[in-house]
Structure formats: structure tokens, C-alpha cells
Amino acid sequence: MGTIQAPDQALTEKLEQLVLQYEKDLLRICCLYLRDWEMAKDAVQETFLKAYKNLPAFRGDSNEKTWLIRIALNQCRDMRRSAWHRYIDPRMDVDKLPLASPPPSDDHLSLTMAIMKLKPKYLEAVTLYFYEGYTMKEIASILRISEAAVSQRIQKAKQKLKAELEGGEGNDR
Amino acid sequence: MTDDRQIMEQVRMAVDDCTRAVDAAPSLLAPILQKAKGEPPVKKKISTALALACALVLIAASALAVTALQPDVLSWLFRGEEAPAEMQALVQHNNDLQQTKNAALTLTQTFFDGETLTMGFTLKNPTGKPLVYTVHHAKLNGMPLLAGTAQLPYGNYTGQALGGQVEGAALPTEDTFFVSFIATSDTTEEWKSEVSESSMFHSVAKDPLQPLENATLSIRVDVFEPLAEYIPVSLSEYNAGECDIVTDKLPILADEGLLNMASLPRPSRLKKIESAEFFFPIVMKETKITTVAAAPGEYKNDLYTLHLDRFTLTPTGGLLEGRITDLSPAFISSESFLSVFPEDVFEQALETKDHALSLHLASYSSGMSTTPDLQPTDFHFSVDFRPNAGELPRGVYLVWLDDHQTYWDSALYLPLLPQ
Question: Which are the contacts of B242, defined by CB distance < 8 A and separation ≥ 6?
Fold first, then answer.
């Protein structure tokens, strides 16, 4: 296959800095999206490797975390569409996330599972707006959609999570 | 409804509480750096013109929810990573368009690595009205082809909606598909839904694919007219075929435009309007790519005896098939799963207990044979591996795991030799 060249030391150091700084944030996002710890780790690794390959071309027109999140979401979408995910692993529950001690509260569990069950476009909106705290303009840039579409998705997501947010019954997805 | 700040606080507290263990989990830095050191950054992968074209595709994809973001077969096979040079030389560019009244099919590329034939094609709805398409079968010189187990299943029970709308959002009018064929096939069983026109086929491999200078690939596409409104369902609902949760609607996986047609309770929701066979001349050249393989035979450890039927790896994938007998009582589980680690990363995986370092699987199937009183006798398995742009390993370690534990101490080593 091709000749392997020695890696650029500065780029490797930059990669290390990015991993140490953003690894956990990306893992949480990928966990919510893929609903599986092992797949989330796979997605995060692929994200950083893709970022490393494209570091020389990164112009800094978005901040690093935003850039990484965009790569991670694309990676998650790709993995969800893969035949592996479609035919081998249709299960979906929070038990596939790494376990903590003591376990999370029932209310928190219910809301998190409700978020995980959202369709990808609503899950992305909830994660980026309510969890990460991005503005609608920033989310529009990350997802490459209009601010109006972002607003619509956030409103729709709020409706779908209404029961868990208000502690009621009768979820409608 | 609580305001956004309150929702923000609720969501953060809930997600943080449920993902607390993420903070305590071992860092992925070591495996990431290891892989990065083996794969130098590419400063300029594609030309400016192609980059612009790709950007436009991505923007269009976001706006129209088009599913295909990787239009060429190697990008699809290697999941966006740069394919090895020996693979790039094997791609045939076809761009052959065939059209009927209700369907336009373009065979864009084919790729034959000596064993597997992969093709990319674009299916377009030229009519301006919403239609549903299924790929019924593909044939090579009249012989049915068997797709790899991880591909879009054959039969006409997976429908692709092109055109129309779901929840006010327009569905794309075309989509790109990829499929890899691994052999010609014998169809041993056809299961026909009692309540719909859809069929599923159980096919087995017949003959391996051989080089052919002049061959004809034929693809049959069935076209259906929707007689009901589309309603979106979640991925889990789609996989479970929970179409009875709605009445008089067509449940569609909106992000991808897919219908699980086998589970439709009434055939009157779809009407077949065309069954079109498309023919494409293709070339499957004689070729030899880098392959490593393990010798078939018996391999033993303290838990079991592995009867290896086949283990081959190429840059475009691999296959591992075998049986396990002499099962130790400590290792009896029909849910057992397998991770395969290249030898150069196994020590690290052993230290970090990180399965992400294993070879990536495309599909996995297994079964347990038992005596009449349900005592396990052997465990057979078949694993397809995804293409890997990295170096092929000189040996691998097989590590079994089940719901209870991972058998790291009983890892089985298989040396791999070039073929």
C-alpha cells in the first residue's frame, strides 16, 4: 500500500490537546445519539481521526468545539445509517451507557431516555440548544440549516418532551 | 410549558446524571494517537472543483434530507477514509443511465476485488409524483446474486420513497445506493407476506464470483404508488415493524424515506405500477489484491476448541467462519460475541479493556446447536469485516465476550499469512 510518512509533531500535539479538551463532551453527545457506549467511543475516535486528517485545512471560521461537534454528528448519522446499526443492533436503552454509582434518578432517567428516543433532527436540536447552550444561529451553522428550521425543531422537540419536562403522562412522538 | 432556561437546567441535570460514568471512563487518547500515527494527515485530498461539488451535495442533503453523502463506492466501502491505491485502480466508472416511465437507474461505479462485486447506483423518480421503489433482485449473466449479509436485503419488503412529503418536509426524488455481492446464489425459500404483496428471500451462496470481461448486470426494480399518506416512525419502530400503531397510513422512516413493507397490514396502501428490469454491461477484471489468511483447522485454548473454516482479510473486508466445540462450562452462552484484535494493538487492548481497538465488523451471525435436552454441543459463527484502510495484521487475537464477562485471558491467537 503507500509509503507511511512520519507524522507532523505539531499536528499530533494539537490532536492531543483537542482530545483532552473535548473528548468527554463528544462522548456524551455520541452516547445520546447512538444510544450505545461502544458505538459512541467508536464515533468519537473516528471524529478525532477525521479532525486530525483535516487539521491543516481547518481555517478557524468556527471554533474548535463547534467544528468537532459537526464532524461527530456526521459520524453518528453515518453510523446510524450503516447496515450494522440497522440490522444488528436495533435495541435502545440507557443500560447501554456506561454505568455510574449511585445510579441516576428515575426522573433523570426518564428524561434522558425520552431525549434518546427522539428522531435525530430533534435530538440534535435538544442536545445543541438545551444541553450545549448554543444559540440558534450557531446551531444553524453546525447543522447547515436555516435558523427558522432550528427554531422549528426546537419547538417540536419541546412538544415531544413535554410529558417528561412537566412530569406528566402521554408522550406523543 | 416551562421556559427555555428551566428546560436547559432540567436537560443538563438529567443528561449529566445519566452519563456521569463518562467522566470516569478511561481516555481514548492512547488509541486515537496510535491510529493517528499510522495515518498521516492528508493536506489536500480532493481538488477544489470536487470539494465544491461535495459541499453542494452536503448542503442539498441537509435541505432535502437526502441520505447519500458519499457518491463513490470506495468512499462508501472505506467510510470516507482514503482507500489504498491498489483499490482505486480497480474502480470502473460506468455512469450508465437506463430509464422507464417511472424509474431512472444510473449505474455509477463498479468495483471488483477478485471476490466481491460492489456497485453504486442512483435511483431517480422522474415522474414528479410520490412513488415507492424496491430492489427485487440483481443478476449477473442471468444468475441471481447474493448480497453481503450487511447490505440492503433483497426481496421487495424494504421500500424507498422518492418524491412526495412527510410532515411537510419534501422527500428527495433520487437517492444513491451501494451494495456488495459476494457470490451467485440459490434462493432456498421465499416468504410471502399474507397481508401484503411483499416477499423476502432466504438465499445461500452458490458459486464465488469470477473475473468476467464482458458481463451483464441486471437489476429488477418494482415501483409502487402510495395510496395513503406518509407518517413518520422512529428507527426502533421501523426495525420492529410496528406499523399497526397507525391506521390507514404508510409508516416511513422519514430521515431515510424507508418503508418496512413486510409489516404493512393492508396491501391497499400501495399499488404496484411497474416492474422494470435494467441491464448494464460491466467488466470484472482479473485482479489480485493483498490478502492474508489463517490456516483452516483446529485451534485450542482452555475454554474451547475452534474449528476454523475460513479466515481471510483484504483491505476491502474479510470473513471469519467456524465452529466452537468442547465448550467449557464457563463458556456457554448463545449470546456470546466476538472481538478480533490485530496483534499490534492487542497488548494495549488487554491493558485498557477497549473493544474499540478490534477489527470493525460489518455483520455477525451465530447459532448454538444443542442435544435434545438442551445441552450445548457446538457454537457456529460467521463474521464479515468492514473494509480497513490500515495495514493488514500478521496475526489476530480472538476474544469472546457475553453479557457477563469478557474472556481476555483466553484470547486465541491466529497467525495470518500472505496469500
Answer: B233, B251, B263
